[in-house]
Amino acid sequence: MKKIIVACGGAVATSTVAATAIKELCQKNNIPVEILQIRMTEIEGNLEGVDLIVTTMRIKKDFGKPYVNGMPFLSGLNVEKTEQAILSVLQG
Amino acid sequence: MDLNSLLNKKLIFFEAKPKNDVEAIKILGDKFIEEKYIKPEYTKTVVEREKNFPTGIVLESLGVAIPHASPENNVLKDGIAVLSLKEPIIFHTMEDADNEVAVSIVFMLALKENNEHLSMLQKLFKIFQNNELIKKLAIVSSAEEFHKYITEAI
């Protein structure tokens, strides 16, 4: 089971959209995942066992975990590249 | 809950000429208040949130923004208010608050419970990802047309 943090700035609106897209991507590729949907400010306290962090807002801080920018799931630009980046972390 | 029922023709505007993001949010907030969708406090929280967590999004052919905030009992009725701008205004981007984007269409969201609106939000982002539709929406000049294009697309 891979554990992914999906976070956005304030409310949970945009991370929900990104989280759903990631869930579907992982299902399609038979990767069991647990998705933790939280606010950006809550990332720090939830890092245990996390394999990947995806945020819709670019984070400048290094949490010591693989990171992928999830904005393409909202804008539709560069979605494939983003999916590949996520899969390479989870399957690597 | 579907997008079509959230998009009230009375809340789609073309004439206003805000100078910046805060003015755009206040214009749409006032319309929301007139139609009894929100309490005035909601507009304040949206302005505040936009400063810390901006909502501009760079799409293929133009910029949009989705100002919103946590409802905290200030949202009375779910809805989306739209401001289409002939002269784009600057928002900061959601992806990186240090970057700017010239926004042509502002979609202000007033949603009571965050988690119940997943499918609606996904539809909204589907619209953003449909470049042909977004280009059409940016040039229409009546609420009827705007509403019709969205209804046809979803």
TrEMBL record, chain A:
Keyword Ubl conjugation: no
Alphabetical GO biological process terms: phosphoenolpyruvate-dependent sugar phosphotransferase system
UniProt KW Signal keyword: yes
Signal peptide: 1-18
Highest taxon of the lineage: Bacteria
Protein's UniProt name: PTS system galactitol-specific IIB component
Keywords carried by this UniProt record: Signal, Transferase
Molecular function via GO: protein-N(PI)-phosphohistidine-sugar phosphotransferase activity
PTS EIIB type-2 domain residues: 2-92
InterPro entries: PTS_EIIB-like_sf, PTS_EIIB_2, PTS_EIIB_2/3
Pfam families: PTS_IIB
Gene3D superfamilies: 3.40.50.2300
UniProtKB/TrEMBL annotation, chain B:
PROSITE patterns: PTS_EIIA_TYPE_2
All copies of domain PTS EIIA type-2, residue ranges: 5-153
Transmembrane segments: none
Pfam families given in the database record: PTS_EIIA_2 (PF00359)
Alphabetical list of InterPro entries matching this protein: PTrfase/Anion_transptr, PTS_EIIA_type-2_dom, PTS_SugarTrans_NitroReg
Gene3D superfamilies the record matches: Mannitol-specific EII, Chain A (3.40.930.10)
Protein name as annotated: PTS system galactitol-specific IIA component
Organism: Pectinatus brassicae
